[in-house]
Amino acid sequence: MNPMPCLALISAALLFASMTANSMIRPPQWHGLLIASSTIKNAGAAPIGDVASGGKGKRQTPTASTESADFDNAISVSFVGVHDFSTGPRRRLSVGSSRSDLEKRNGDASSSFSGTFRCADAGEAFAASWLSTVELFLSNGLFTEKSLSDPDCKWCVTMAAGFVFAHQAVSGLALRTVDMFDFFVHHLSYYEKILSGNYVGNRDRCNLEVDVLRNLDAMERGYIARGYNNPSGRKNGQVLAIMPFYSGKNNKFKTRKFLNISVLSVSHVFPNIVLCVATEEDYRYVTDESGLNEYLYDVMLISGLNGTNYLPLGCNVRARAKLSAGARGGDDGGGGAERSGAWTGFDWVFYTESDQMPHLRDVDRILSLALQHPRNDAKSPLIVPHRGVPYAVREDFADLDKVEVGCGMHRLAKVANKTVHSLPDIREKSCCFRDLYCKRNTGSYQHHFDREDVQLFRQHESWAMIAGTGNVFKETYQVCNLTNTRQICQIG
User: Residue 42 is part of which domain span?
Assistant: First the structure.
């Protein structure tokens, strides 16, 4: 998402306004993408309410080896052997509950699940990620091949694909969980927005990229060692995960790091991943150079686009053709730079971008939500994760004097005295929203993250995240309340 133009937000908002009425099981070898890290001491895990970080100096983050006992849940490759995707997709990895399995258990209610609420606002329902049944995805007639090459298609750019699908195909029926920790994504590239201010004008002198890449390196190792985004370790191969990736024109190293962490984390939940790319360079990277080949079900080089910013929409359109052909038991015929090869046997579709890691504590529960019919009609809902926003804290940086004084990072001071709560296992805590904020226009505020009721949490080596979720179009944020134990959230 990072290299895409921000104009997409405006375009999507305007559209909504017009529509309303190798063969061994092993950790990945990143071919030089893992950068060398300094030795980092184990700071331990602080429970909710204890200070997990604070003060001046380098962030004290456990290495991947020091806490591996916390989870016997390391991420491993999904497939055996390097695949030539020009011949078609791999054989689907079949694992986990099927649709019929979950429909038989539809009446089983979890005593610890707090439920969902319906989002009626476009911005609240947008997370650049969603889960739906295959049928719902195929029913969306808005996306067409003609749109992909249409220079006058203002809404076709960047993030509009996921956004428009949420509201055109589902007519506003998008659900989010009342407890944030049931389903959220960690949105990596938002971190760069927090590093704004004077930093952009002093990039060469400040050189915060070293700190950012060091943190990403530790994060990647932590996900590999623990797989803490899916602590149950239960995967589901009946879900097709779709992810567009464009490395951009500059700083490809960082966007590729984002991609690696995203693919790793998604594979630990939904192992059948399709990557969509728009350039030959990105195709070579993901298939041959990245070390990701054994984590991928298929790779599509999307041709015929009006520009690379049409890639997310192109990914949706071409994925629909592959799934539709699979449902017919046939083939979509390929075309352009793609080749034929239908996708068969899938019950759900999970769409996300290449800078987001999904976190689910009960995979079957979230998949079951997509099978419901809340309005007693034929249309099932879209399940949307909360979009976890990372926030820069002082421990992320090696030289605070440079960062806070020379680079104008005044935003660090806003949260300097806040506790960063350690959250080793999302099954043990809750983050409850105080009201059904998607139904309200009150109670939200614009990025006032220094407010007392704004809490921060961190999972192992991840960046600190704000407890809550945002409205990207209104640029507002609603907080949830961290609890010491997991509980049923009471809405009031």
Answer: 7-24+33-482
